[in-house]
Amino acid sequence: MVVASESKQLKLIRKIDSILGSSYSLHKVIRKIYFEIAKVMDTSNFYIAIYHRTDDTVSFEVYTIFGKEIPVASRKLAK
Hints:
The protein is of the alpha+beta class. It is built from 2 helices and 4 strands, in the order ααββββ.
């Protein structure tokens, strides 16, 4: 994935920085970040995963294939 320009990269980073402090809900923050990333990058095949150390699992907060968002269950981390 390629970001269009350095100017858009910096704008995206500033926007994400402001989003990080906007909510205590991790899900809401990740969704907002995803929508900002989608403005400057192709997210048709894309995911954001979170590693949970306490139970050694990975949850997929955003998972898209060919532009369609697909729900994916959490799974145990494998080798």
